[in-house]
Design a protein that fits this description.
This protein is mainly alpha-helical and 209 residues long. Helix content is 76%, strand content 0%. It is globular. The N and C termini lie far apart (60 Å). The mean pLDDT is 85.
Length: 209
Protein backbone atom coordinates (compact mmCIF):
# COMPACT_ATOMS: atom_id res chain seq x y z
CA UNK A 1 0.00 0.00 0.00
CA UNK A 2 0.96 3.68 -0.08
CA UNK A 3 2.32 3.81 3.49
CA UNK A 4 4.51 0.77 2.91
CA UNK A 5 5.85 2.17 -0.36
CA UNK A 6 6.60 5.54 1.24
CA UNK A 7 8.34 3.82 4.15
CA UNK A 8 10.46 1.77 1.72
CA UNK A 9 11.48 4.88 -0.24
CA UNK A 10 12.22 6.92 2.88
CA UNK A 11 14.41 4.09 4.21
CA UNK A 12 16.26 4.16 0.89
CA UNK A 13 16.93 7.87 1.40
CA UNK A 14 18.83 7.03 4.58
CA UNK A 15 21.45 5.28 2.45
CA UNK A 16 24.36 7.19 0.95
CA UNK A 17 23.16 7.31 -2.64
CA UNK A 18 24.08 9.62 -5.50
CA UNK A 19 22.10 12.78 -6.33
CA UNK A 20 20.35 11.27 -9.35
CA UNK A 21 18.97 8.38 -7.30
CA UNK A 22 17.97 10.66 -4.42
CA UNK A 23 16.12 13.05 -6.72
CA UNK A 24 14.28 10.12 -8.32
CA UNK A 25 13.23 8.74 -4.92
CA UNK A 26 12.06 12.12 -3.60
CA UNK A 27 9.91 12.53 -6.72
CA UNK A 28 8.53 9.00 -6.36
CA UNK A 29 7.55 9.61 -2.73
CA UNK A 30 5.97 12.96 -3.66
CA UNK A 31 3.84 11.29 -6.34
CA UNK A 32 2.55 8.80 -3.77
CA UNK A 33 1.75 11.56 -1.27
CA UNK A 34 0.42 14.32 -3.55
CA UNK A 35 -3.23 13.44 -3.07
CA UNK A 36 -3.23 12.02 0.47
CA UNK A 37 -0.67 14.29 2.14
CA UNK A 38 0.21 17.37 0.05
CA UNK A 39 2.25 18.87 2.89
CA UNK A 40 4.60 15.89 3.03
CA UNK A 41 4.64 15.72 -0.77
CA UNK A 42 5.76 19.37 -0.92
CA UNK A 43 8.69 18.56 1.39
CA UNK A 44 9.86 15.82 -0.96
CA UNK A 45 9.44 17.98 -4.08
CA UNK A 46 11.46 20.70 -2.38
CA UNK A 47 14.10 18.08 -1.51
CA UNK A 48 14.21 16.95 -5.16
CA UNK A 49 14.77 20.58 -6.20
CA UNK A 50 17.53 20.99 -3.62
CA UNK A 51 19.27 17.78 -4.74
CA UNK A 52 19.12 18.98 -8.34
CA UNK A 53 20.65 22.31 -7.29
CA UNK A 54 23.42 20.72 -5.22
CA UNK A 55 24.29 18.35 -8.05
CA UNK A 56 24.75 21.28 -10.42
CA UNK A 57 26.86 23.07 -7.81
CA UNK A 58 29.07 20.00 -7.49
CA UNK A 59 29.54 19.98 -11.25
CA UNK A 60 30.37 23.68 -11.09
CA UNK A 61 27.84 24.78 -13.67
CA UNK A 62 24.39 26.30 -14.03
CA UNK A 63 21.35 25.45 -16.11
CA UNK A 64 22.63 25.40 -19.67
CA UNK A 65 19.98 23.66 -21.79
CA UNK A 66 16.26 24.09 -22.34
CA UNK A 67 15.82 20.45 -21.30
CA UNK A 68 17.36 21.16 -17.87
CA UNK A 69 15.17 24.24 -17.55
CA UNK A 70 12.07 22.22 -18.45
CA UNK A 71 12.89 19.74 -15.67
CA UNK A 72 13.26 22.54 -13.13
CA UNK A 73 10.06 24.24 -14.28
CA UNK A 74 8.12 20.99 -13.91
CA UNK A 75 9.42 20.51 -10.36
CA UNK A 76 8.65 24.08 -9.32
CA UNK A 77 5.17 24.01 -10.85
CA UNK A 78 4.49 20.81 -8.94
CA UNK A 79 5.70 22.51 -5.76
CA UNK A 80 3.50 25.54 -6.47
CA UNK A 81 0.41 23.35 -6.90
CA UNK A 82 1.11 21.64 -3.58
CA UNK A 83 1.66 24.95 -1.81
CA UNK A 84 -1.57 26.32 -3.26
CA UNK A 85 -3.41 23.22 -2.01
CA UNK A 86 -2.16 24.02 1.49
CA UNK A 87 -3.12 27.69 1.31
CA UNK A 88 0.42 29.09 1.41
CA UNK A 89 0.30 32.06 -1.02
CA UNK A 90 3.52 33.74 0.14
CA UNK A 91 5.42 30.48 -0.38
CA UNK A 92 3.94 30.19 -3.88
CA UNK A 93 5.33 33.61 -4.79
CA UNK A 94 8.70 32.79 -3.22
CA UNK A 95 8.97 29.53 -5.19
CA UNK A 96 8.28 31.31 -8.47
CA UNK A 97 10.87 33.99 -7.64
CA UNK A 98 13.41 31.23 -7.03
CA UNK A 99 12.57 29.71 -10.40
CA UNK A 100 12.97 33.08 -12.11
CA UNK A 101 16.44 33.45 -10.57
CA UNK A 102 17.45 30.04 -11.91
CA UNK A 103 16.43 30.79 -15.51
CA UNK A 104 19.43 31.86 -17.62
CA UNK A 105 19.37 35.14 -19.51
CA UNK A 106 20.28 33.68 -22.91
CA UNK A 107 17.99 34.19 -25.91
CA UNK A 108 17.30 30.45 -26.13
CA UNK A 109 15.46 30.72 -22.81
CA UNK A 110 13.18 33.62 -23.79
CA UNK A 111 10.04 31.48 -23.91
CA UNK A 112 10.74 29.84 -20.55
CA UNK A 113 11.58 33.16 -18.92
CA UNK A 114 8.35 34.73 -20.21
CA UNK A 115 6.25 31.84 -18.88
CA UNK A 116 7.88 32.03 -15.45
CA UNK A 117 7.47 35.79 -15.17
CA UNK A 118 3.83 35.74 -16.22
CA UNK A 119 3.09 32.90 -13.80
CA UNK A 120 4.77 34.98 -11.09
CA UNK A 121 2.68 38.02 -12.04
CA UNK A 122 -0.48 35.93 -11.83
CA UNK A 123 0.54 34.66 -8.39
CA UNK A 124 1.28 38.18 -7.18
CA UNK A 125 -2.14 39.35 -8.27
CA UNK A 126 -4.24 36.34 -7.28
CA UNK A 127 -2.33 34.91 -4.32
CA UNK A 128 -1.12 37.98 -2.42
CA UNK A 129 -3.18 40.79 -4.02
CA UNK A 130 -0.08 42.69 -5.16
CA UNK A 131 -1.22 44.19 -8.46
CA UNK A 132 1.51 46.89 -8.60
CA UNK A 133 4.15 44.18 -8.14
CA UNK A 134 2.47 42.08 -10.81
CA UNK A 135 2.60 45.00 -13.27
CA UNK A 136 6.35 45.39 -12.71
CA UNK A 137 6.88 41.68 -13.43
CA UNK A 138 4.75 41.75 -16.60
CA UNK A 139 6.68 44.78 -17.86
CA UNK A 140 9.88 42.82 -17.23
CA UNK A 141 8.52 39.98 -19.37
CA UNK A 142 7.71 42.42 -22.16
CA UNK A 143 11.31 43.66 -22.20
CA UNK A 144 12.37 40.34 -23.74
CA UNK A 145 9.09 39.49 -25.47
CA UNK A 146 7.48 42.75 -26.65
CA UNK A 147 5.03 40.89 -28.89
CA UNK A 148 3.72 38.53 -26.19
CA UNK A 149 -0.06 38.70 -26.46
CA UNK A 150 -0.49 37.08 -23.04
CA UNK A 151 1.79 39.66 -21.42
CA UNK A 152 0.13 42.58 -23.21
CA UNK A 153 -3.33 41.35 -22.21
CA UNK A 154 -2.20 40.87 -18.62
CA UNK A 155 -0.66 44.34 -18.51
CA UNK A 156 -3.81 46.03 -19.80
CA UNK A 157 -6.04 44.14 -17.34
CA UNK A 158 -3.79 44.90 -14.38
CA UNK A 159 -3.49 48.56 -15.33
CA UNK A 160 -7.26 48.91 -15.51
CA UNK A 161 -7.61 47.23 -12.11
CA UNK A 162 -5.15 49.69 -10.54
CA UNK A 163 -6.50 52.72 -12.36
CA UNK A 164 -3.25 53.22 -14.32
CA UNK A 165 -4.95 53.03 -17.70
CA UNK A 166 -2.21 55.03 -19.44
CA UNK A 167 0.60 52.77 -18.23
CA UNK A 168 0.37 50.11 -21.00
CA UNK A 169 0.70 52.67 -23.80
CA UNK A 170 4.50 52.51 -24.07
CA UNK A 171 4.47 48.70 -24.12
CA UNK A 172 1.73 48.68 -26.75
CA UNK A 173 3.60 51.22 -28.87
CA UNK A 174 6.81 49.19 -28.55
CA UNK A 175 4.94 46.05 -29.64
CA UNK A 176 3.52 47.87 -32.66
CA UNK A 177 6.95 49.19 -33.65
CA UNK A 178 8.49 45.73 -33.37
CA UNK A 179 5.64 44.16 -35.32
CA UNK A 180 5.93 46.71 -38.13
CA UNK A 181 9.68 46.14 -38.26
CA UNK A 182 9.12 42.42 -38.67
CA UNK A 183 6.52 43.02 -41.39
CA UNK A 184 9.06 45.16 -43.25
CA UNK A 185 11.74 42.49 -42.89
CA UNK A 186 9.33 39.90 -44.23
CA UNK A 187 8.42 42.11 -47.18
CA UNK A 188 12.13 42.42 -47.96
CA UNK A 189 12.55 38.67 -47.73
CA UNK A 190 14.84 38.85 -44.70
CA UNK A 191 12.68 36.77 -42.34
CA UNK A 192 9.45 34.82 -41.96
CA UNK A 193 6.59 36.50 -40.14
CA UNK A 194 5.61 34.97 -36.81
CA UNK A 195 1.91 34.71 -35.86
CA UNK A 196 2.63 36.85 -32.78
CA UNK A 197 3.32 39.79 -35.09
CA UNK A 198 -0.23 39.84 -36.45
CA UNK A 199 -1.57 39.26 -32.93
CA UNK A 200 0.28 42.29 -31.59
CA UNK A 201 -0.93 44.53 -34.40
CA UNK A 202 -4.51 43.36 -33.89
CA UNK A 203 -4.30 43.78 -30.13
CA UNK A 204 -2.95 47.32 -30.47
CA UNK A 205 -5.82 48.25 -32.78
CA UNK A 206 -8.38 46.90 -30.29
CA UNK A 207 -6.67 48.49 -27.29
CA UNK A 208 -6.80 51.94 -28.89
CA UNK A 209 -10.60 51.83 -29.22
Amino acid sequence: DTDAAVYHYEQFLQLDKGPTERQFVHEAVARLLTTVAPGRAAIHVRSAIDVNKKYRELRGDEVSTTEEMATLMALYRWLVELLQAQGQPEDVVQALRELEALCPAGPQFTTEREQILLDLATALEQQVNDRPGAIVVVEKALTDSPLSLRALTQLVALSKATGETARPQSALQRATTEARKQVLQMAQGETELAPATFSALGFWSCARR
